[in-house]
Design goal:
Blueprint: E1 39-40, H1 43-49, E2 58-61, E3 65-71, E4 77-83, H2 90-104, E5 114-120, E6 123-129, H3 136-141, H4 152-172, E7 187-189, E8 195-197, H5 216-220, H6 237-254, H7 270-274, H8 281-287, H9 290-293, H10 298-312
Parallel strand pairs: 1-5
Antiparallel strand pairs: 2-3, 3-4, 4-6, 5-6, 7-8
Helix pairs in contact: 4-6, 6-10
Protein name: Protein kinase domain-containing protein
Keywords: ATP-binding, Glycoprotein, Kinase, Leucine-rich repeat, Membrane, Nucleotide-binding, Receptor, Repeat, Serine/threonine-protein kinase, Signal, Transferase, Transmembrane, Transmembrane helix
InterPro entries: Kinase-like_dom_sf, Prot_kinase_dom, Protein_kinase_ATP_BS
Length: 314
Amino acid sequence: SSLMNGHDTSSSNNDSIIPGRVPKRKSCAKTSKNLAPAKQFLAVDIMAATRNFNEECLIGEGFTGRVYRGDFPDGQLLAIKKINMIDLSLSEQDELMDILGNMSRLKHPNISSLVGYCVEFGHCVLLYEYAENGSLEDLLFSAATRSRALSWKARMKIALGVTYALEYIHLMCSPPFAHGNIKATNILLDAQLMPYLSHCGLAKFSHFVSATRMDSEALSGAKGYAAPEANGSGTDIIKADIYSFGVILLVLLTGQKAFDSSRGPNDQFLVDWASPHLHDLNSLGRITDPRIRGSMPPKAISALGNIILLCIKV
């Protein structure tokens, strides 16, 4: 069928799973001993759920690829991430399956669970629980939801949930690991605004990922979150996560984007714009999001400012 072959006769979309790009073996037959919690999906079922990765099902994208909404016949609704893979050797395919096994073992109330995966025809697709309220970025900044004021208590609930998720991966996992890409688009929210840190473990995919989609839209979502030293050698990646979390707190406090080209040349990065105000309560109050300024106690604003300072060490 056209779906089995990765071709949709009704669409010219180039995001299909195309058998013509077959690596040394068509699919990863090895199953990691850790992989039991995640289900192996068939490419044909993923094609049907996303209508052959139709643009109308697209809900986001980043460095590693695009994310689609997938509707399955049994009523299951999943977020489907299609990763832009390079061709892998047999040993790299085995390494990939071990990474997927470790990702499937991550079980925490504030981490988005890997529900399933598909590795066929040189492509890797990851399936996650679907978040009804999208991402924190969507909720704060999309035109459809910006008018909905997110209360300061809801914002602190989100911050606390992300804190718990970071504590889990930084301190409780064995071995501990860094997330490596903390940003508002990677914090997902369910119907009750419970936060889920997504893409945990995905940083280990970096050497498997093609750089074909490093376009401005994919890059813009991460700008402003990375620690200044993040790309240097010897970077403490756990500390880099903490810096990014400090930026998340700034975003929640101010209601401003981590990077905004409409601000002045020296203030486009939120950390640069906000830093002069973090040491003084009155000044801190002035940069607090007007939608929560009247309801957030001054002591809470001051305490949050101190935590932000510790995270970004300005």
